[in-house]
Design goal:
Blueprint lengths: L1 H18 L22 E2 L11 E2 L1 H14 L4 E8 L5 E7 L11 E6 L7 H16 L4 H9 L1 E5 L4 H4 L38 H11 L3 E8 L2 E6 L14 H16 L14 E3 H4 L6 H8 L3 E8 L9 H17 L19 E3 L6 E5 L6 E6 L4 E6 L5 E4 L6 E7 L2 E7 L1
Length: 419
């Protein structure tokens, strides 16, 4: 009997342990990854990157970005987001075809390596740029994607952390910037209620950049685990689910399923599904994901794409094999956005809201007399319930802080951006 009870206790302990999520790699005081036994090969020229099994030196990275802009001037332009504390460039390319230039095009943004030692995504983004450019005019699908979507890619958001030991190597890279600041904890936090910390130079440059664009879908690539992490990071899903949580789960499942066509064991080290709400994994504040979702009407996902933060150089082609189709497909998810400006709402809402964005009030058309209209903030918290009088309704937002709000009636919902 005692042996039976002991076995049951051991089984319960094992099941409880297996149900816990793997610790989030950016949730605790970080431990530097041991690279001594890893084969880290660097490319000192653009030509040496041809096989994609090396990490570029800083000068090689800049030369690659410049060469693409020179080789594909009709569809690729190079922009400087800003500079790091030590003066390195924070670069992005814009890839956009000339067809349909006179119509609204949704804008998409990929960014990687906000933590300087998480460099798998750095090389994946470089290879994605090369693939999109080389495929234009050759692949009908990718040509249409480049023609119809403004695609912006920032491969390296924290160059000082990545090249901490000099421009020639990624060995010794750290998560922080040169001022020892975690860039993914120091974005303006819409939920903490705490006065904003000093914004690091790299983050201020990124804030200025995204504020000058109209990105509607984005992703930030990390390493240290393998999981798709959707908002919110600031809350568990039971506390405050994201208003588009169901859509996020569908998007993440499509991403994971696509990767697992190449490797059935990929994206399983945190959850079996391969995705999680950020706060269910671990609650953090000041992250870029919640900043983008709340302040910029941009649905951003955090992609943790490799268990190792810095994978051995020879494994980089393997990760591209896992990820390339899913990374391209994720850009196409911009066509599925739920109720975002300029793109059809999946609920086929008959509500018309204007002006949008606004600084004071909005006019709402399409309501029947007596129909109830609920005003919510972006976390889903109800702020007011109004009743339509049968004529266009004026909804006053003047006393609310700037941000994104929802107007909902029945199964119809419209987003409003308050400046």
């Amino acid at each position: 009997m005692k042996q039976h009870l002991l076995l049951l206790a051991l089984l319960a302990t094992t099941l409880a342990a297996s149900a816990q999520l793997k610790p989030r790699p950016d949730a605790f005081p970080p431990v530097a990854e041991t690279l001594a036994t890893k084969a880290i090969t660097m490319a000192s020229s653009v030509d040496e990157m041809a096989s994609w099994d090396r990490y570029p030196s800083y000068e090689t990275y800049v030369a690659m970005m410049q060469r693409w802009a020179e080789q594909y001037p009709e569809i690729c332009s190079l922009d400087t987001i800003g500079t790091s504390v030590q003066g390195r460039l924070i670069l992005a390319v814009q890839i956009e075809g000339q067809r349909l230039a006179d119509v609204y095009k949704p804008q998409f943004f990929y960014s990687s390596t906000i933590h300087g030692d998480e460099v798998t995504g750095y090389v994946m983004m470089l290879r994605l740029i090369d693939t999109l450019l080389a495929s234009y005019g050759n692949s009908p699908r990718l040509t249409a994607l480049v023609d119809e979507v403004g695609i912006y890619i920032n491969p390296l958001a924290n160059p000082d952390g990545t090249y901490r030991r000099g421009n020639h190597t990624v060995r010794g890279a750290i998560r922080y910037n040169a001022d020892t600041v975690d860039l993914n904890r120091t974005f303006p936090d819409p939920f903490s209620g705490v006065a904003a910390k000093a914004v690091p130079q790299e983050n201020q440059a990124m804030i200025d950049y995204v504020s000058a664009h109209r990105f509607r879908l984005s992703a930030n690539l990390h390493g240290g685990a393998e999981v798709m992490n959707y908002p919110w990071d600031s809350f568990t899903s039971t506390m405050r689910p994201h208003p588009e949580a169901e859509w996020w789960q569908e998007v993440c499942k499509r991403f994971v399923d696509t990767c697992r066509l190449q490797s059935r064991s990929y994206l399983r080290d945190v959850t079996e599904s391969g995705y999680t709400a950020g706060g269910d994994w671990y609650v953090i504040g000041g992250g870029r994901q919640d900043y983008m979702n709340h302040y910029h009407n941009c649905l951003e996902l955090t992609m943790e794409i490799s268990t190792a933060k810095t994978v051995p150089s020879e494994q980089l082609p393997t990760y591209w094999h896992y990820l390339n189709a899913a990374l391209i497909n994720y850009i196409g998810e911009i066509y599925t956005l739920p109720g975002t400006e300029g793109i059809a709402d999946r609920s086929a809402s008959l509500i018309q809201v204007y002006p949008n964005p606004t600084i004071n009030s909005v006019v709402v058309r399409g309501l029947q007399q007596g129909e109830r209209l609920e005003l919510l903030d972006i976390t889903g918290r109800s702020l007011a319930t109004l009743t339509a009088g049968g004529t266009p309704m004026l909804v006053d937002l003047g006393n609310l802080p700037r941000g994104i709000y929802l107007l909902r009636t029945g199964n119809q919902c419209a987003k409003v951006v308050k400046h």
